[in-house]
From TrEMBL:
Annotated organism of origin: Pontivivens marinum
Signal peptide region: none
The keyword Cell inner membrane belongs to this UniProt entry's keyword annotation: no
Family from the record: Belongs to the DnaG primase family.
Residue numbers spanned by region Disordered: 426-455
Protein name as it appears in the record: DNA primase
Length: 649
């Protein structure tokens, strides 16, 4: 809303900066000269004992010679009350008796109506506060005492009591000249289809709900009858009250958060009240609904990372996890959420009463980032023992990442989730060095290195020959991917599942996949460049210089992308088959030391079938298996022909 300069001139002329500042400081009478508007005090913005904070009331400016804070009355209210510029203007205008300029006549009419409804709400608050000390409120007072609330806390939160009478408040307001339609419009009374309006709150402890500027906008009530249909009841939506854009204890929490730079989001009234009584005044609560986008916006105006501390029961955990979907599209750099996981079955009020505020503060200090709860939500209680289930998880994670609108945050979330995925599926993270550096990335459940007893096996005897052969194939696959980045991006999922024997090429593959999944790399070629930068050298030059790559023209940069894709897929199929054969032969040879059964027969036969299919390739060419492949195939055939699964006597 744009305000005319004349309005600000009038506001400054009516506002005494010294009077505004006096609410937050104690003047040093030895240094101050009220007659000249020259005032001094310890600075309210930093801890000090000397009076280095100066206010020039005539000019309307303040300055601290210690921390160098400076500004005018609007700036002072903004900083000390932790409000926006416009809210600070509205606070000063209200104190100066000035009407804020309205955009149009309808806006002025609505403002007048809201003011009238707020007056009715204030009357209701005052009435119910008085009822709490009445004879019929004995059970309510006992409940308040049982919950450990002090008299000061009851006064601070203006807690009251609504007697069970059907029309007690309604008649009280009518006696003050309030029209029935206005009473109903305020939300404190309900209008049946026929008959007289009746009080909405009956036999309930009353919690006034105020907006950020301190205006009473609604009421909340806690039923004293254990059989009541609703344990907690909020007022309805009105011109004053939009429950999706309001927070309980918003104003006081905002002021407290200005000092602590923290905000706690609890589930209900009693949690907020218990936290405040324990010294944690920067707490708010949503009003009977799941946290909305509007409430998130309010929280982020108070602090950058609110801590969500909902109840530790199933419903509380479910609510916290639902909030993730609301928050993801709204995340901005520096604006996020953290989650305080309460003990099972406890809320903040329970924990403080049983274990004290130190235990509560310890939990708040250990609040976890949102990405961790997101990962837990997507993986908890699930089994990922098949490629299809892992692919489903990948699809869910990609969908969630696409909900993040800020590219930088999406990138960092993707990196964090990739790390967690590697921990779940792939053990330790691969090294990020160049060729021949780091330890091979071994998937969970993969065979350990050969034991001493297995060294005499065929695989152990032929290790060097097979490694040389596989290095050529893996080099060809990676050369094709680096020369054709978009093809590599289209093959991201099968590349990630590809079994590889060479640790340095495995590192290259994993670093390339990491950058291909980065949303900032819209052009896959930039992902390749980022890979080269991270490795510290140009792997393309080394791979393209290899003889088997130079002669494979379908893998070179100038090759057609569709041809390159088909060639890479064919090599990957052969690689998968050959690695599978090696695993089966190794397992079979281990089983031969015991009593082998038909399972060995079936596994070897399946490995042979897979080998034959893969080596036939994607075209009609004859099987042209290399020396390493042929030797492995011949060994497999001998094992089958000799019926090695039959124990020899």
């Amino acid at each position: 809303m744009s305000l005319p300069p004349s309005f600000f001139d009038d506001l400054r002329s009516r506002t005494s900066l010294a009077a505004v500042v006096a609410r937050k400081v104690t003047w040093d009478n030895r240094k101050s000269n009220p007659g000249k508007g020259d005032m001094w005090a310890p600075c309210p913005f930093h801890q000090e004992k000397s009076a280095s904070f100066h206010v020039d009331d005539r000019k309307g400016f303040y300055y601290c010679f210690g921390c160098h804070a400076k500004g005018d009355a609007i700036g002072f209210v903004k900083e000390t009350e932790n409000v926006s510029f416009m809210e600070a203007v509205e606070i000063l205008a209200r104190e100066a008796g000035m009407q804020m300029p309205e955009r149009d006549p309808r806006a002025a009419e609505r403002a007048e109506k809201r003011a009238g409804l707020s007056d009715i709400m204030e009357m209701a608050v005052k009435f119910y506060r008085a009822q709490l000390s009445g004879a019929r409120a004995g059970a309510a007072r006992e409940y308040i005492n049982r919950r450990g609330l002090t008299r000061a806390t009851v006064e601070r939160f203006e807690i009251g009591y609504a007697p069970p009478d059907r029309t007690l408040l309604f008649e009280h307001l009518r006696a003050k000249g309030i029209e029935p339609a206005e009473i109903v419009a305020s939300g404190v009374a309900a209008q049946p289809d026929s008959g007289q309006p009746y009080d909405r709150f009956r036999d309930r402890i009353i919690f006034p709900i105020r907006d950020g500027r301190g205006r009473a906008i609604s009421l909340g009530g806690r039923a004293m009858d254990p059989n009541a249909r609703a344990k907690y009841l909020n007022g309805p939506e009105t011109e004053l009250f939009d429950k999706g854009r309001a927070l309980y204890n918003q104003g006081p929490a905002r002021e407290a958060a200005g000092k602590t730079q923290a905000l706690v989001v609890a589930e209900g009234y009693m949690d907020v009240i218990a936290l405040a009584q324990a010294g944690i005044g920067h707490a708010v609560a949503p009003l009977g609904t799941a946290i909305t986008e509007g409430q998130l916006a309010l929280m982020w105006r108070i602090t950058d990372e609110p801590v969500i501390a909902l109840d530790g029961d199933t419903a509380g955990i479910r609510a916290a996890r639902r909030l993730i979907d609301v928050a993801l599209p709204l995340l901005q750099p520096g604006k996020s959420l953290r989650f305080c996981v309460m003990p099972a079955g406890q809320d903040p009020d329970d924990l403080i009463r049983e274990s004290g505020v130190t235990a509560m503060q310890s939990l708040l200090d250990g609040a976890r980032p949102m990405v961790e709860l997101l990962w837990e939500r997507e993986t908890e209680g699930k089994v990922f023992d098949s490629p299809e289930r892992r692919a489903a998880l990948d699809a869910d994670l990609r969908r969630l990442l696409n909900n993040i609108t800020d590219q930088s945050i999406r990138t960092h979330y993707g990196a964090a989730l990739r790390d967690k995925r590697q921990e779940l599926f792939g053990g330790s993270r691969p090294s990020r060095g160049g060729f021949n550096t780091g330890t091979p990335w071994r998937p969970k459940g993969a065979p350990e290195p050969a034991s001493a007893g297995a060294r005499a096996s065929f695989l152990a005897r032929e290790t060097q020959a097979l490694e040389d052969h596989q290095r050529l194939r893996e080099s060809a696959i990676m050369a094709g991917c680096l020369n054709h980045p978009e093809v590599a991006r289209s093959l991201e999922a099968p590349l990630e599942r590809l079994p590889m024997a060479c640790s340095d090429l495995t590192v290259l593959r994993d670093v390339l996949l990491y950058h291909l999944s980065n949303p900032l790399h819209h052009d896959a070629s930039t992902a390749v460049e980022a890979t080269m930068t991270q490795l510290g050298y140009d792997a393309r030059e080394r791979l393209n210089a290899l003889g088997n790559v130079r002669v494979a023209r379908h893998l070179l940069p100038q090759a057609d992308a569709s041809v390159a894709r088909a060639a890479i897929l064919e090599e990957m199929a052969k690689q998968t088959a050959e690695m599978g054969i090696r695993d089966e032969v190794r397992d079979a040879e281990e089983d031969m030391h015991g009593v082998a059964d038909e399972g060995v027969t079936w596994r070897l036969q399946q490995a042979s079938i897979a080998r034959d299919r893969a080596l036939r390739g994607l075209g009609d060419e004859e099987d042209t298996a290399s020396g390493g492949e042929q030797e492995l195939s011949d060994h497999l055939s001998r094992l089958i022909a000799d019926q090695v699964w039959i124990k020899k006597r």
